[in-house]
């Protein structure tokens, strides 16, 4: 490796660390590691030897796109080989492809380095491809930092604020207040009885008291009462007559009119 | 004037002061960020039921205009500044899309792909039936990336999808920029091409959504870029060929139309390179383009890949497109023979703005054509752009054909607007560079200011046309509020809860009759098989032997009945995915049509939330 490029080792190391972080149950590490494996590391390994000839924008385009191609094309290959696409398979696929590309470049390293030409035309103006000279204007001065950092901080603050406003508005604006009532048969009718499951789901704005009245053939009647907080539900399993329509009516408070009603046709 | 407004590299005067690396990009983007904040406020107003139109339009303009003006007016724009501006604009515009529905996918097509992604995440299997969008099962690229991100990061599928769409959107803009640069455009022209493309009808929303097209699209400029850089006899031949092939393979298995178009564009470019290349241009300065065959080779490889995929795993694509093409053909023949009057319903103001924008673009195309012909230019790329520009106008005419015309034309602009943006950018930069904007000139002249103002006006016209007639439609331009069978606005919390209940109660593939929103949700959240063409069952005021027979014939087991069908009017004029009266339903259904379901013999009402009711259908 002496005299060869060092970037493959760095990227390979990063891929191994990211793979380890994904497999460890630490969410703080898992998110950036997973994102790196899908969006960055395979692409970085793929463009490695071309890097000197690529502009920054070319790298910005190539790295995520070539990375994304790995789960897309590689996933189909793995599945064709009979492998189910689970998380460990995604880890193995992205890591192995990254390592393989790094290994390939290490093997071809000296040749690739020789063939690397003039750096890309990144620091150019509209009118030419002349590479930038690191003159006084190119130095990272305090004034220049201020011209970049201050707007960047302001931009991030504005976008963060906008995001919070949008998220809160969507969460509060999409809330609806309602109650759902459902009835489902359980198993099949046995002799003269059948079982049904009646569920009340509360999504009202405040805790609400409910009464469910269930009626059926041959004068069957049953009722259940419950008080539910928003976001909660309650299920009862009842044994009802096997024949004839069974109706469940839901009442709130002292109301005499059913708030919701569901029914099962005769068995 | 040249199409790309580039000067030869050697023409730079040595005394020219260098532009700072990022130039005015940071400040410009900060001003744009204020626009994002304004749009966020307008969305919040929309959710609260208030009218946020003023904040919305001010925000939209503020996000876009500073970047456009900077690129049109600047004397010098370095690659770093131009790249920062377009990438910044792409990020900000993606945020506009995200803020519309930041907590969950609401657009039906996004839910279709969300369903495929969650299915892959849970089962690890490809090609499983996706009842929400059957064809998506054979184009699993987006589901694979989404599942990989969700699986590797542990994030929910929705967040993973938002990240995938955002990264692809950003990568697309970067790829378009580098493609323009590789074809000879300067940074200013390349950046302006990206800004122009951002005025496309579907750029802001549809092309940034979690859809298979969003993932495939950036690979289209990438494969063109690779074809430009690939030289058979160069030492670098392998990497660029490999990048081109990988891009083609990814498109092939991710999105049908993008794959087909990539092959077509490569074939066109390759043919032009083979025909026009290798001969000296008629006029000095027009350039000599060597004959080359790399692009044709890539086109051939793409044809093999796309053909093999279409004839192999994705055979059903024929069934998917067949009925749509027949429907379109019928509408076109009806229009030509005078039997139908074409599509209707476009807002006159929006139509006028769009027409003005189209006219401006047509002028641009003519200017570019004239310049190319006068220069006796034999650059294959220029001719390909002109052909693409002409295609844009041909496809734009589709909007007048049938009820689906506007949607098809809108979706096609995603592709046909690419060459026109590149052409228009060259013309605009060429026009604004004259009259005192050169590097060696003094302060900007009045003429230059006028030209910049005119260029900005054209861009604003295009932007306004896109926002007025693009996505989201006018009735749900701001989020919030329920609209019966709307797109995003048709999906409310109670309907989602009902669909989730269906998913818990019934096995996947159970057939359910439904309206537009019901079908979307039952398929996405419930994994049920939506039957969206039993409109007769819903619209008749009473049960008839015919409607019962229809349910039996279609093997429908469940019915999704939204009681608001009897009280609300759909803003789209359509109630069902396949609606014979699409666009014409301007009143609620009769009350009896909605209440009759309680009297269906032998049926159960299994679920009731006050609006959505689920009935079983006795299939004896």
From TrEMBL, chain A:
Residues 113-138 are annotated as: Disordered. The chain crosses the membrane at residues 7-26, 32-50, 62-82, 88-108, 148-167. Coiled coil: none annotated. It comes from the Bacteria. Keywords: Membrane, Transmembrane, Transmembrane helix. This is DUF1616 domain-containing protein. It comes from Actinocatenispora comari. The lineage of its organism: Bacteria, Bacillati, Actinomycetota, Actinomycetes, Micromonosporales.
From TrEMBL, chain B:
This is Uncharacterized protein. Its main location: membrane. It is a multi-pass membrane protein. GO terms for molecular function: pentosyltransferase activity. GO terms for cellular component: plasma membrane. Keywords: Cell membrane, Glycosyltransferase, Membrane, Transferase, Transmembrane, Transmembrane helix. The chain crosses the membrane at residues 27-48, 54-73, 80-100, 159-179, 186-204, 260-281, 293-312, 349-369, 381-402, 408-429. One of its GO terms (biological process) is lipopolysaccharide biosynthetic process. It comes from Actinocatenispora comari. It is found in: Cell membrane. The keyword rRNA-binding does not apply. InterPro entries: LipidA_mod_glycosyltrf_83. The lineage of its organism: Bacteria, Bacillati, Actinomycetota, Actinomycetes, Micromonosporales. It comes from the Bacteria.
């Amino acid at each position: 490796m002496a005299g060869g490029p060092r970037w493959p080792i760095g990227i390979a190391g990063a891929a191994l660390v990211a793979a380890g972080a994904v497999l460890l149950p630490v969410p703080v590490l898992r998110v950036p590691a997973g994102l790196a494996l899908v969006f960055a590391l395979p692409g970085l390994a793929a463009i490695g030897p071309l890097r000197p000839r690529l502009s920054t924008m070319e790298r910005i385009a190539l790295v995520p796109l070539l990375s994304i191609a790995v789960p897309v094309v590689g996933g189909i290959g793995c599945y064709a080989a009979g492998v189910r696409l689970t998380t460990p398979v995604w880890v193995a696929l992205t890591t192995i492809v990254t390592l393989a590309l790094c290994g390939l470049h290490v093997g071809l390293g000296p040749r690739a380095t020789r063939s690397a030409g003039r750096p890309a035309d990144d620091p150019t103006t509209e009118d030419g491809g002349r590479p930038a000279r690191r003159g006084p204007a190119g130095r990272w001065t305090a004034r220049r930092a201020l011209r970049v950092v201050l707007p960047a901080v302001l931009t991030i603050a504005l976008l963060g604020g906008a995001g919070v406003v949008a998220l809160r508005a969507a969460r509060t604006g999409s809330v609806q207040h309602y109650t759902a009532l459902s009835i489902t048969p359980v198993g099949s009718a046995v002799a003269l009885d059948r079982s049904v499951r009646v569920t009340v789901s509360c999504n009202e704005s405040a805790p609400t008291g409910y009464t469910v009245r269930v009626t059926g053939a041959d004068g069957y009647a049953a009722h259940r009462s419950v008080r539910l907080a928003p976001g909660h539900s309650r299920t009862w399993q009842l044994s009802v007559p096997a024949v004839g329509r069974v109706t469940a009516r839901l009442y709130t408070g002292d109301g005499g009119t059913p708030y919701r009603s569901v029914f099962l046709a005769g068995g | 004037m040249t199409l790309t407004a580039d000067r030869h590299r050697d023409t730079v005067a040595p005394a020219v002061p260098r532009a700072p690396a990022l130039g005015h990009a940071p400040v410009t983007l900060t001003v744009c960020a204020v626009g994002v904040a304004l749009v966020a406020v307008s969305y919040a107003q929309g959710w609260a039921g208030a009218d946020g139109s003023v904040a919305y339009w001010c925000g939209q303009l503020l996000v876009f205009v500073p970047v456009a003006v900077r690129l049109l007016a600047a004397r010098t724009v370095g690659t770093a500044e131009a790249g920062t501006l377009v990438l910044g604009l792409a990020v900000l515009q993606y945020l506009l899309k995200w803020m519309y529905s930041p907590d969950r996918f609401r657009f039906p097509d996004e839910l279709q792909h969300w369903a495929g992604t969650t299915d892959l995440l849970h089962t690890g299997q490809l090609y499983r039936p996706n009842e929400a969008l059957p064809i998506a099962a054979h184009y699993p690229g987006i589901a694979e990336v989404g599942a990989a991100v969700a699986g590797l990061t542990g994030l929910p599928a929705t967040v993973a999808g938002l990240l995938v769409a955002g990264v692809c959107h950003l990568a697309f803009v970067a790829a378009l920029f580098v493609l323009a640069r590789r074809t000879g455009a300067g940074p200013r022209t390349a950046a302006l091409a990206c800004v122009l493309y951002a005025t496309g009808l579907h750029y802001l929303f549809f092309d940034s959504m979690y859809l298979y097209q969003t993932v495939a699209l950036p690979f289209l400029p990438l494969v063109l870029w690779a074809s430009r850089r690939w030289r058979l006899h160069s030492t670098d031949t392998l990497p660029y060929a490999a990048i081109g092939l990988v891009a083609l393979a990814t498109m092939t298995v991710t999105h049908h139309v993008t794959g087909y178009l990539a092959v077509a564009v490569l074939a066109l470019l390759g043919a032009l390179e083979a025909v026009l290349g290798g001969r000296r241009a008629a006029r000095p300065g027009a350039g000599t383009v060597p004959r080359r065959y790399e692009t044709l080779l890539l086109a051939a490889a793409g044809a093999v890949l796309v053909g093999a995929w279409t004839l192999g795993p994705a055979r059903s694509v024929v069934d998917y497109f067949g009925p749509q093409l027949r429907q379109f053909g019928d509408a076109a023949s009806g229009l030509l023979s005078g039997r139908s009057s074409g599509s209707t319903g476009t807002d006159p103001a929006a139509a006028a703005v769009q027409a003005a924008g189209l006219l401006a673009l047509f002028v641009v195309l003519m200017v570019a054509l004239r310049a190319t012909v006068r220069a006796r230019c034999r650059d294959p790329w220029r001719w390909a752009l002109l052909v693409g520009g002409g295609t844009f106008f041909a496809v734009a005419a589709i909007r007048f054909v049938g009820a689906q015309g506007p949607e098809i034309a809108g979706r096609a602009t995603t592709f046909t607007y690419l060459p026109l943006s590149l052409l228009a950018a060259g013309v605009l930069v060429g026009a604004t560079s004259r009259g005192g904007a050169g590097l060696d000139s003094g302060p900007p002249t009045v003429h230059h200011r006028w030209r910049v103002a005119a260029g900005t006006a054209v861009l604003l016209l295009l932007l306004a046309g896109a926002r007025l007639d693009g996505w989201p439609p006018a009735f749900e331009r701001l989020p919030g509020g329920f609209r019966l069978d709307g797109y995003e606005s048709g999906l409310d919390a109670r309907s989602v809860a009902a669909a989730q209940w269906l998913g818990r109660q019934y096995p996947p593939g159970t057939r359910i009759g439904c309206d537009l929103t019901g079908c979307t949700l039952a398929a996405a959240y419930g994994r049920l098989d939506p039957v969206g063409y039993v409109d007769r069952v819903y619209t008749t005021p009473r049960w008839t032997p015919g409607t019962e027979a229809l349910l039996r014939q279609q093997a429908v087991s469940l019915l999704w009945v939204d009681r608001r069908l009897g009280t609300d009017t759909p803003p789209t004029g359509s109630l069902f995915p396949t609606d014979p009266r699409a666009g014409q339903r301007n009143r609620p259904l009769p009350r009896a049509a909605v209440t009759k379901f309680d009297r269906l013999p032998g049926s159960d009402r299994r679920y009731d939330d006050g609006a959505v009711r689920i009935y079983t259908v006795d299939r004896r």
